[in-house]
Design brief:
This protein is mainly α. The chain is rod-shaped and about 165 Å long. It starts with 8 loop residues before the first helix and ends with a strand.
Length: about 260
């Protein structure tokens, strides 16, 4: 095998010259290609100057904004898809901060958009409550009230008849089995406009009322027979059989 240093001097010099020529040729080609590429880029930039995208700012509701409008705000495509997917599944942005819960929502972008977020709140018009007169309502009316079935409707009407009508909604608490929470629930739908039927205490031959026990009713009639007509409540207070609580409950039903 012939080694490089065994080659004659003249031939070795020719090989070195060829290799140097090859090196300079490759270097020149690389530099010319790089210069050509940069020149083309400069020409393209001159013809088509690059402009950074300018995103718009306007008030928006993230619950209703379209994909095109979201893009105008500079929201990345993946983030837009996450927002739309969230909405399509019934999700709702209730506050502007909820937007930060979207996966990969850029914090800097949120800070830029936050002042422009306006979430509309839907206010359902309040239904006007039409209250029924408790002293005129029949069973058909009463069963429309939540918690009042046929049984309670019947009890209310029966007790109303015995009383001579209700003078206060609080009297519903006196109906057997009717729970306070049910009464509280139906109160907004009830009113009392029709006055009660009063007992002419100085004229009745018989006295019967849910607030009076039999012996109390007899005591009233006996006192009237002995002392004459009642002029006012004070006269009734003279009857030992009547306590203050009974008189207070009975008074709205008395006519002197």
């Amino acid at each position: 095998m012939t080694l490089f240093w065994d080659i004659p001097k003249k031939e070795a010099q020719s090989i070195r010259s060829f290799m140097l020529l090859l090196f300079f040729t490759a270097t020149a080609y690389y530099l010319l290609k790089k210069h050509s590429t940069e020149s083309k880029q400069r020409v393209l930039l001159t013809i088509y100057p690059y402009e950074a995208p300018v995103y718009q700012r306007f008030h928006f509701d993230p619950n209703t904004l379209t994909e095109d409008s979201l893009a105008l705000l500079g929201i990345p495509e993946k983030t837009m898809k996450s927002m739309i997917n969230f909405r399509s599944k019934g999700g709702k942005f209730r506050t502007k901060e909820d937007l930060q819960k979207i996966y990969n929502f850029p914090p800097v972008l949120y800070d830029s958009l936050a002042p422009w977020i306006k979430i509309q709140t839907s206010h359902k018009p309040q239904q006007r409550i039409i209250a029924m007169d408790l002293n005129l309502a029949d069973s058909t009316d009463l069963v429309t009230l939540k918690g009042i079935g046929k049984t309670f409707a019947s009890r209310i009407i029966k007790y109303r008849t015995a009383l001579g009508g209700f003078h206060s909604l609080d009297q519903l608490n006196e109906i057997y089995g009717l729970k306070p929470e049910t009464i509280a629930q139906i109160r907004p739908y009830l009113k009392i406009k029709t006055p009660v039927s009063k007992i002419k205490i100085n004229e009745v031959a018989e006295l019967k009322h849910p607030y009076l026990r039999s012996y109390q009713a007899k005591a009233i009639l006996a006192y009237r027979k002995q002392h004459g007509e009642f002029k006012n409540l004070e006269d009734l207070k003279n009857i030992d059989a009547l306590d203050e609580e009974t008189l207070a409950k009975l008074l709205p039903y008395l006519q002197f």
